[in-house]
User: Which sequence fits this backbone?
């Protein structure tokens, strides 16, 4: 793993040599993680993502993005005026279109921000957080391995800006001893609508069940730059780059 990370970082030191010209220019999408995205890939491995500086490079079908001191890798394909970006572990790509039209249209469609007089004192008006800072994908990954077997678990919840959510969990376990050999695997999923009242996340499943979770915002104990949400004590770390709380 360290060798792979060292290779990715090394690519940025020679970004100009690996900046595929097929990506040069501006690309946009109306909805990526609940918000419009505008990306500019400039020659030489520099660029911007929603106005924030990035560095980028490519190696074959891999795209490396460095932002805020962190490096992320993606698969990519350029098909005419479309850029297909594959986040790690996902089969479905994020599709960006050449130019800024998709971004511009999405920004125009967004509701207007309340005037200062309306938003200056939300506490007095009894307003509560809409939870837009929670929009994104959050995952809980764990596992252990011994000479007699191993177990792994990955659970992810995606909170979308339109008030819907999806939940997916996978777990597996294997046993390898002198007398027993085998394994088990399980999957579960759910979807529905969510709301946030400033301290609790309320999930209304499409099955008809409503569950209320006490929500606490924390940063990862080892990597302080990664925010987490803890639901009734179970913590999920951000799957994508997000600023710390």
Assistant:
């Amino acid at each position: 793993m360290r060798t792979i990370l060292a290779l990715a970082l090394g690519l940025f030191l020679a970004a100009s040599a690996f900046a595929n010209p097929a990506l040069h220019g501006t690309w946009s999408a109306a909805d990526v993680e609940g918000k419009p995205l505008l990306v500019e890939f400039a020659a030489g491995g520099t660029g911007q993502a929603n106005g924030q500086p990035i560095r980028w490079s490519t190696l074959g079908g891999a795209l490396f993005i460095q932002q805020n001191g962190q490096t992320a890798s993606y698969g990519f394909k350029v098909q005419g005026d479309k850029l297909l970006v594959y986040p790690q572990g996902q089969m479905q790509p994020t599709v960006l279109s050449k130019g800024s039209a998709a971004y511009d249209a999405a920004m125009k469609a967004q509701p207007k921000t309340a005037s200062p007089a309306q938003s200056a004192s939300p506490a007095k008006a009894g307003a509560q957080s809409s939870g837009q800072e929670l929009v994104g994908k959050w995952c809980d990954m764990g596992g252990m391995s011994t000479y007699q077997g191993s177990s792994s678990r990955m659970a992810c919840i995606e909170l979308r800006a339109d008030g819907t959510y999806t939940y997916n969990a996978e777990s597996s376990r294997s046993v390898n001893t002198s007398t027993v050999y085998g394994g088990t695997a399980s999957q579960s999923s759910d979807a529905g609508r969510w709301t946030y009242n400033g301290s609790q996340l309320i999930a209304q499943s499409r099955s008809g069940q409503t569950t209320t979770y006490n929500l606490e915002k924390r940063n990862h104990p080892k990597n302080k730059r990664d925010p987490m949400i803890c639901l009734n004590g179970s913590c999920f770390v951000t799957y994508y780059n997000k600023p710390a709380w």
Q: What stands out?
A: Residues 191 and 208 are 11 Å apart (CA to CA). DSSP finds five helices and 16 strands in the chain. The radius of gyration is 21 Å. Residues 1-17, 113-127, 143-147 have pLDDT under 50 and may be disordered.
